[in-house]
Design goal:
mainly beta
Length: 143
């Protein structure tokens, strides 16, 4: 990884191939994300390109339901999946939050969904997508 140089006045200057990564505390996509207990939202910035990598999952049933053994029930967020990862360009005019422009989806090769309820595997899935997109940004494959 290339180093970040800190200037005297406290600003940082990224090297030419450095991708800035920011973890954010809200879901990046999905209309029912407020019902999901698993939410990851990573902003990747490289030169003028900004990408939002969003993973959501573990969606609570609505209304809240419990099984016979008193465990909370969950619904799938799509066809045969409890988690999904999607990537979008950020909204060009949104300079404050850089939220996803869901009309500009980016497809990637890493696994993008999980059928089972497993937060650790969902984190790994998210990290794989971030790593793949970081490499693509550095190679100039995404603009």
């Amino acid at each position: 990884m290339l180093a970040i140089r800190t200037l005297l006045w406290g600003q940082t200057m990224l090297s030419n191939l450095e991708v800035r990564r920011t973890e954010r505390g809200w879901a990046g996509h999905f209309i029912c994300a407020d019902r999901c207990s698993f939410r990851r939202n990573t902003l990747l910035e490289f030169k003028k390109t900004k990408l939002v990598v969003s993973t959501v999952g573990v969606m609570a049933a609505s209304p809240i339901r419990y099984s016979q053994d008193n465990k909370r029930r969950y619904e799938k967020i799509g066809l045969d999946r409890h988690y999904e990862t999607m990537v979008f360009h950020s909204k060009k005019k949104d300079k404050k939050y850089n939220d996803a422009d869901v009309s500009k989806q980016i497809f990637f090769e890493s696994n993008w969904f999980l059928e089972e309820l497993d937060d650790n595997k969902a984190n790994d899935m998210h990290e794989s997508a971030v790593a793949e997109l970081t490499k693509k940004l550095q190679k100039g494959e995404l603009e």
